[in-house]
Each structure stands twice: as C-alpha cells, then as structure tokens.
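Much of our argument rests on the idea that a fold can be written as discrete symbols. Part of our work consisted of pairing the sequence of a single chain with a tokenised description of its backbone. The amino acid sequence and the backbone structure tokens for this protein are reproduced below.
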Amino acid sequence: MVENLTGLGVVAFWVVLLLRLPEVLRQKEFRNMYFSVVALGLSVTLYYRPIAEFLAELFGSARPCNIGMNLWGILTSGVVAALVARELWPRAVKVVYGLTAAGLVVVAVIGQTVSQGSIGCATALDLPWWDPYWWLLCGAWISAMACAVLLCVRSIRAAAGMPALTATMVCFLIGFASSLLFWIGILSFLVLRPPWVLSALPIVLLFHVWFHTLGLFIGVVTSAGSWVNSALAMRRRLRLLRRLEHLEHTSQTSRRALHAGLWRDFVRSPRLGVYRAEVQILDSLALMGDQVLAAGQAGSAAAAGIVEYAKSAECADAEGGILFDKLETYVRELNEENGIRGNLHQR
C-alpha cells in the first residue's frame, strides 16, 4: 500500500513539475530552492524500487542497491548542498564542490576495496555499526538535508505576506525534513538496530514525496488563478478599448490588427498584454480629449463625459493613475443608458 502510494506520488511529482516548470524557470527568487526540490525528486524517482530494479537490469547489476546508486546519492546530496550554499553561503559553494568530488572518490574506492560487503541496502545487510561506507553516505545526506531545511526556514520568512508562497515553502520544509529524518533513521538503524525503523522509513519517504508534490501543486493552482484573473482583466480592458475606439471612430481593420497584437502579447506574458492594453486605452483617451476640444459644443457628449470622468478623482487610484475597472464600468453603464434612450426615441 505504502509503496503504491509512493509510486503514485512520484508520477504526480513529475506531472506537477512539468506544469510548474515554465514559471520556475522565469522567476529569479527561490529558484535554487525549486532546483533543490527537482534534484531530490529525481533521486527519489531513481531509488523507487520498480525503477531501481529496471535500471539494475538495464545496466546488468545483480541488485538495485549498487555502488552506482550510492554514487548518485552522493552527487545528489552535493547538488542540493551547492544550491543551498548559493543562497546562504555563496563563498562556500566551491568548498561544497570539492567535498562532493572527494566524497565520490572515497565512496568509489572503499566500495571496491575495504567495504565491498557494504554495498546494498543498509537495512538488509548485517553491517557493523561503525561501517565507514554508510557513515559517509548518511553524513552527506544528513548535512545536505539539514542545510535545505535552513534554506526553507529562510524562504518562509522571505515569503511573509504571500500566503500561497508561504504554504509552498512550508510543504518543501516538511519534505526536506522528512528526507532528513529518513537518513537519520538509516544511521540509527546502523548503530542501534531498532526494528521499528524498517516499517517507519517507507512512511517517511511517502511524506517526503507527497509534500514536495503538494508544494509544487500549490504553485500550479496559484499560477492558474493568476492567469485567469489576468485573462479576465485583459478582456475588460479590450472591451473598454473597443468602446473608446468606437467613439473616436477608429477603423475596424486597424482595431482588429491592434487587438490581435495585444492578445499575442498576452499569450507571451499576461502582464505585458494587460499593460499594453492599458497604454492603448490611455492613448485613446488622449485622442478623444483632443477631439472633444476641437469639436467644442458640437462634439459628442458621451466622449466628453468619459474624458472628464477619466480625469476625475473618483476614477483615480492612490498614486494618481486611472482605475481602469471603474472607467470600464462607467463607460458600460453610459452605453447602456444611451441604448435605453435610443430605444425610447425609436418608439
């Protein structure tokens, strides 16, 4: 049951990661944290029993827990530690690289010499408590995961005031803490041999996989919600722009080309699309203002009212900019009122 849930978590992790990846690659903040999650997720994927057995068969190994997997573990812990160091202690990055390289060499050498009998799954081998091979592996993982937990704590503080991002970082914290607990459990089994560790470790790993997946999923939901809000804002901006263009008598052909270009900008970057639409609205208001001044009393009363309302304090935000949603509501209500009047006159 636990193994099946872990496998489902591994699949869910990669599906959610693919959905989240474009946003992760675009952002600069917390990028090293996300990359640490990806590195650890890849390691857990390769250690998942069915995949580990497939890789062992593919490379002609007699068992899934082999020296290649142990070397991969040292490399992964080094990558996580280096990513954490880039955020917390930039000067220590080269030291981490050096220690990781040394760890790979030492594990490879002692695994083929004095610790040949130590290669495999620690919980399935009769190892002495002082076994250097597994002390080195556990030490590398515990150090890297402890550093990752510290980075999570710092990230949670940095995300204060942003509930979704804070929740994501809390999930990552639980995931890294679970991995830390997993390797502490391996070391405690090596030293003390408590039998309950064997049944607890798969559950700890399950927590690790699913909390990292949940952290990524929160980001996916947040990004999707933000995109929907931006799309609705874009729709309102273009609806307002169409009404303003109608009053300023812009040609239908140029309108379509402009609106298509704005939607293309939105697809590339929602913020850019909305921003450019707002710039076009400001340009349209400026043109309408010029037309109203030039026409004088003979000009459109609706256009004059819109220009006046756009300049009023009622339509301004705290910084003096235009509240586009309020302006859109005003223009829509004005159009509806004029439409009702037109219908009454026709009767």
Remarks:
- Residues 2-225 form one domain.
- Residues 340-347 have pLDDT under 50 and may be disordered.
- DSSP finds twelve helices and no strands in the chain.
